[in-house]
Design brief:
By secondary structure, the protein is α+β, with helices and mostly antiparallel strands. The chain has one domain. Helix 5 packs antiparallel against helix 6 and helix 8 packs across helix 9. The longest helix is centred in the C-terminal third of the chain and has 18 residues. The strands form two sheets. A five-stranded antiparallel sheet has the order 3-4-5-6-7, with helices on both faces. It is elongated and about 90 Å long. It contains ten helices and seven strands.
Protein backbone atom coordinates (compact mmCIF):
# COMPACT_ATOMS: atom_id res chain seq x y z
CA UNK A 1 0.00 0.00 0.00
CA UNK A 2 1.28 3.45 -0.95
CA UNK A 3 0.16 6.82 0.36
CA UNK A 4 -0.25 9.55 -2.24
CA UNK A 5 -1.13 13.23 -2.13
CA UNK A 6 -3.35 14.60 -4.86
CA UNK A 7 -3.65 18.30 -5.70
CA UNK A 8 -6.53 19.44 -7.84
CA UNK A 9 -6.95 22.81 -9.51
CA UNK A 10 -10.58 23.64 -10.14
CA UNK A 11 -12.03 26.23 -12.46
CA UNK A 12 -15.79 26.69 -12.44
CA UNK A 13 -16.11 23.35 -10.64
CA UNK A 14 -14.18 21.60 -13.41
CA UNK A 15 -10.79 19.96 -12.90
CA UNK A 16 -8.26 22.09 -14.74
CA UNK A 17 -5.10 20.46 -13.43
CA UNK A 18 -4.13 17.49 -11.25
CA UNK A 19 -0.84 16.60 -9.54
CA UNK A 20 -0.03 13.41 -7.66
CA UNK A 21 2.95 12.87 -5.34
CA UNK A 22 3.94 9.95 -3.13
CA UNK A 23 6.91 9.91 -0.75
CA UNK A 24 6.53 6.10 -0.57
CA UNK A 25 6.96 5.70 -4.31
CA UNK A 26 9.88 8.13 -4.34
CA UNK A 27 11.70 5.85 -1.90
CA UNK A 28 11.60 2.95 -4.36
CA UNK A 29 15.08 2.55 -5.85
CA UNK A 30 17.45 -0.19 -6.98
CA UNK A 31 18.64 -0.85 -3.42
CA UNK A 32 15.10 -1.36 -2.15
CA UNK A 33 14.21 -3.65 -5.05
CA UNK A 34 17.39 -5.68 -4.43
CA UNK A 35 16.57 -5.98 -0.71
CA UNK A 36 13.05 -7.20 -1.49
CA UNK A 37 14.44 -9.72 -3.98
CA UNK A 38 16.94 -11.10 -1.45
CA UNK A 39 14.35 -11.27 1.33
CA UNK A 40 11.84 -13.07 -0.90
CA UNK A 41 14.37 -15.77 -1.81
CA UNK A 42 15.74 -16.25 1.71
CA UNK A 43 12.20 -16.68 3.03
CA UNK A 44 12.01 -19.94 1.06
CA UNK A 45 13.76 -21.56 4.03
CA UNK A 46 10.67 -20.99 6.16
CA UNK A 47 7.91 -22.00 3.73
CA UNK A 48 5.58 -24.72 4.99
CA UNK A 49 5.14 -26.81 1.86
CA UNK A 50 4.49 -30.45 2.76
CA UNK A 51 2.61 -32.15 -0.04
CA UNK A 52 2.23 -35.91 0.26
CA UNK A 53 2.39 -36.34 -3.51
CA UNK A 54 5.47 -34.19 -4.17
CA UNK A 55 8.99 -33.84 -2.79
CA UNK A 56 10.93 -32.15 -5.60
CA UNK A 57 10.11 -28.78 -7.19
CA UNK A 58 11.63 -27.15 -10.25
CA UNK A 59 11.85 -23.36 -10.49
CA UNK A 60 8.49 -23.02 -12.25
CA UNK A 61 6.73 -25.17 -9.63
CA UNK A 62 8.47 -23.31 -6.83
CA UNK A 63 7.31 -19.98 -8.25
CA UNK A 64 3.71 -21.21 -8.46
CA UNK A 65 3.82 -22.08 -4.75
CA UNK A 66 5.07 -18.64 -3.65
CA UNK A 67 3.49 -15.32 -4.62
CA UNK A 68 6.55 -13.32 -3.58
CA UNK A 69 8.86 -15.37 -5.78
CA UNK A 70 6.54 -15.08 -8.77
CA UNK A 71 6.82 -11.29 -8.61
CA UNK A 72 10.62 -11.17 -8.81
CA UNK A 73 11.04 -13.68 -11.65
CA UNK A 74 14.01 -15.47 -10.04
CA UNK A 75 15.81 -18.29 -11.85
CA UNK A 76 17.49 -21.27 -10.19
CA UNK A 77 20.82 -19.52 -10.65
CA UNK A 78 19.45 -16.37 -8.96
CA UNK A 79 18.17 -18.38 -5.99
CA UNK A 80 21.48 -20.19 -5.54
CA UNK A 81 23.52 -17.01 -5.75
CA UNK A 82 21.35 -15.23 -3.19
CA UNK A 83 21.69 -18.09 -0.70
CA UNK A 84 25.43 -18.33 -1.28
CA UNK A 85 26.00 -14.60 -0.84
CA UNK A 86 23.48 -13.76 1.88
CA UNK A 87 22.35 -16.80 3.88
CA UNK A 88 25.51 -17.34 5.97
CA UNK A 89 25.21 -21.13 5.72
CA UNK A 90 27.98 -23.40 6.99
CA UNK A 91 28.08 -25.54 3.83
CA UNK A 92 28.44 -22.53 1.54
CA UNK A 93 31.60 -23.90 -0.10
CA UNK A 94 29.76 -27.07 -1.11
CA UNK A 95 26.94 -24.99 -2.60
CA UNK A 96 29.40 -22.75 -4.42
CA UNK A 97 31.13 -25.75 -5.94
CA UNK A 98 27.91 -27.47 -7.01
CA UNK A 99 26.44 -24.24 -8.41
CA UNK A 100 29.61 -23.41 -10.33
CA UNK A 101 30.53 -26.82 -11.73
CA UNK A 102 27.17 -28.40 -12.56
CA UNK A 103 25.94 -27.44 -15.98
CA UNK A 104 22.72 -25.79 -17.12
CA UNK A 105 21.51 -24.77 -13.65
CA UNK A 106 18.07 -23.56 -14.67
CA UNK A 107 17.22 -26.93 -16.19
CA UNK A 108 18.95 -29.22 -13.72
CA UNK A 109 18.33 -27.80 -10.23
CA UNK A 110 15.32 -28.80 -8.15
CA UNK A 111 14.35 -27.83 -4.61
CA UNK A 112 13.22 -29.62 -1.44
CA UNK A 113 11.52 -28.23 1.68
CA UNK A 114 11.72 -31.10 4.15
CA UNK A 115 13.59 -32.07 6.24
CA UNK A 116 15.35 -28.81 5.30
CA UNK A 117 15.31 -26.46 2.34
CA UNK A 118 17.81 -27.79 -0.15
CA UNK A 119 18.95 -28.20 -3.73
CA UNK A 120 19.05 -31.30 -5.92
CA UNK A 121 21.64 -30.98 -8.68
CA UNK A 122 21.52 -33.23 -11.71
CA UNK A 123 24.84 -34.00 -13.36
CA UNK A 124 25.05 -35.74 -16.71
CA UNK A 125 28.45 -37.06 -17.73
CA UNK A 126 28.99 -40.67 -18.71
CA UNK A 127 26.35 -41.61 -16.13
CA UNK A 128 23.49 -39.83 -14.42
CA UNK A 129 24.15 -38.47 -10.95
CA UNK A 130 21.76 -36.68 -8.57
CA UNK A 131 23.31 -34.67 -5.72
CA UNK A 132 21.17 -33.44 -2.80
CA UNK A 133 22.63 -30.62 -0.70
CA UNK A 134 20.58 -29.29 2.22
CA UNK A 135 21.15 -25.90 3.84
CA UNK A 136 23.26 -26.11 6.99
CA UNK A 137 23.44 -29.89 6.80
CA UNK A 138 26.33 -32.18 7.66
CA UNK A 139 26.29 -34.40 4.59
CA UNK A 140 25.73 -34.64 0.84
CA UNK A 141 23.44 -37.36 -0.56
CA UNK A 142 24.23 -38.86 -3.97
CA UNK A 143 22.47 -41.28 -6.32
CA UNK A 144 24.26 -42.53 -9.45
CA UNK A 145 22.97 -44.82 -12.17
CA UNK A 146 24.99 -47.90 -13.05
CA UNK A 147 23.99 -47.86 -16.70
CA UNK A 148 23.31 -45.47 -19.55
CA UNK A 149 19.57 -45.37 -18.82
CA UNK A 150 17.82 -42.05 -18.96
CA UNK A 151 17.38 -39.80 -15.94
CA UNK A 152 13.60 -40.29 -15.71
CA UNK A 153 13.91 -43.58 -13.80
CA UNK A 154 16.64 -42.36 -11.47
CA UNK A 155 14.72 -39.13 -10.89
CA UNK A 156 11.77 -41.17 -9.58
CA UNK A 157 14.14 -43.19 -7.39
CA UNK A 158 15.53 -39.97 -5.91
CA UNK A 159 12.09 -38.53 -5.22
CA UNK A 160 11.02 -41.74 -3.49
CA UNK A 161 14.25 -41.71 -1.44
CA UNK A 162 13.72 -38.11 -0.35
CA UNK A 163 10.17 -38.99 0.72
CA UNK A 164 11.50 -41.76 2.97
CA UNK A 165 14.24 -39.55 4.41
CA UNK A 166 11.72 -36.73 4.96
CA UNK A 167 9.25 -38.93 6.81
CA UNK A 168 11.46 -41.51 8.54
CA UNK A 169 15.04 -40.22 8.52
CA UNK A 170 18.18 -41.18 6.64
CA UNK A 171 18.99 -44.24 8.76
CA UNK A 172 15.69 -45.83 7.71
CA UNK A 173 16.47 -45.10 4.06
CA UNK A 174 19.99 -46.53 4.37
CA UNK A 175 18.50 -49.77 5.71
CA UNK A 176 15.89 -49.77 2.93
CA UNK A 177 18.59 -49.32 0.27
CA UNK A 178 20.53 -52.32 1.63
CA UNK A 179 17.46 -54.53 1.17
CA UNK A 180 17.29 -53.88 -2.59
CA UNK A 181 18.65 -56.80 -4.57
CA UNK A 182 21.00 -55.80 -7.38
CA UNK A 183 20.06 -52.12 -7.55
CA UNK A 184 20.97 -50.50 -10.85
CA UNK A 185 22.05 -47.37 -9.02
CA UNK A 186 24.49 -46.52 -6.22
CA UNK A 187 23.62 -44.45 -3.15
CA UNK A 188 26.17 -42.71 -0.98
CA UNK A 189 26.51 -40.10 1.77
CA UNK A 190 29.54 -37.84 2.03
CA UNK A 191 30.04 -36.10 5.36
CA UNK A 192 31.17 -32.49 5.27
CA UNK A 193 33.37 -32.64 8.33
CA UNK A 194 36.36 -34.68 9.39
CA UNK A 195 38.30 -34.33 12.62
CA UNK A 196 41.77 -32.79 12.73
CA UNK A 197 41.48 -31.18 9.29
CA UNK A 198 41.53 -27.52 8.27
CA UNK A 199 38.56 -25.99 6.44
CA UNK A 200 40.41 -26.29 3.12
CA UNK A 201 41.37 -29.90 3.78
CA UNK A 202 37.79 -30.81 4.73
CA UNK A 203 36.42 -29.20 1.59
CA UNK A 204 39.01 -30.83 -0.67
CA UNK A 205 38.29 -34.21 0.89
CA UNK A 206 34.55 -33.73 0.30
CA UNK A 207 35.09 -32.59 -3.30
CA UNK A 208 37.40 -35.51 -4.14
CA UNK A 209 34.93 -38.05 -2.72
CA UNK A 210 32.08 -36.44 -4.67
CA UNK A 211 33.94 -36.51 -7.97
CA UNK A 212 35.08 -40.11 -7.46
CA UNK A 213 31.53 -41.20 -6.67
CA UNK A 214 30.02 -39.49 -9.72
CA UNK A 215 32.76 -40.48 -12.16
Amino acid sequence: MFLAKIKLKLLDNEIEDIAVHSDDIDRINDDLIKAIRISSVLNLRHLKIDRVDKNLYNTKELTSETKELSLINATAKDILEIFIQNANVKNVRQLEYLARDKQDLNERVQFTFKPLFGFVFYELNNKHCFIWELLNSHATYIWKSNSAENNLYLGKVVEQAIAIIKNDGREVYKKFYKTIENPNYDFGIIDHSSNNLTDDERFNEWRNKLERFCS
